[in-house]
Design goal:
Layout: E1 12-18, H1 22-28, E2 30-32, H2 50-56, E3 72-76, H3 82-88, E4 102-108, H4 109-114, E5 119-122, E6 133-134, H5 140-143, H6 146-150, H7 163-167, E7 170-174, E8 176-178, E9 184-186, H8 190-205
Antiparallel strand pairs: 1-4, 2-8, 3-7, 4-9, 5-6, 5-7
Helix pairs in contact: 1-8
Amino acid sequence: MAGSAARGADHLIVHFTHVRNLPGILAAGCLHADNQVDRRSALTVEAADLEIKSSRRMIRVGLAPFGCVADYVPFYFAPRSPMLYKLAMGGVPTYTEGQDPLIYLVSTVGAITVAGLRWLFSDGNCAATVTQMFDDPGLLDSVVDWPLMAARMWSNTADDPDRMRRRMAEFLVHERVPLNCIAGIAVRTQGMKNQVEGLLRAGTKGSP
């Protein structure tokens, strides 16, 4: 489990979901891991590859608090991920709405740490057998390929056939992330900004 004085605490982390899931997330007061989420409210639209999600329930985590990858709320370090590209390009048969309705819930490593949540991180796609997971915050700056996280182009090349895997490095938070750890919501269009602001106003009015 990460300590309280993590290096790289200012690193942004992003979790994307469909905008129609936002009301349920607001009502729950947190983001839940896939194995914990209420699919009737907070996950009404599966903006993901269902085969990959199923495989994440089978990938065991060898570090405390253990479990499987689906027991963790996933965040990316890179703002544009291979999975987002796949969804945007219509590469997932069960999702056909494109990129515009996808929103990013943004946090930081520091916010998660200060909240006392249990977290791990990976050096690449958790589904890849060569990917490693870590719980030492002192390794964040050296294990994650930060220049690649910031690069606009991340495709594999003849000289570096591992770029796509590394681009999908994840920050994994055990079971749930309270909404007070979320610093903001990033959207692609002005229309989506207006929609999200309306949902946030409605969610605030509905709070106890």
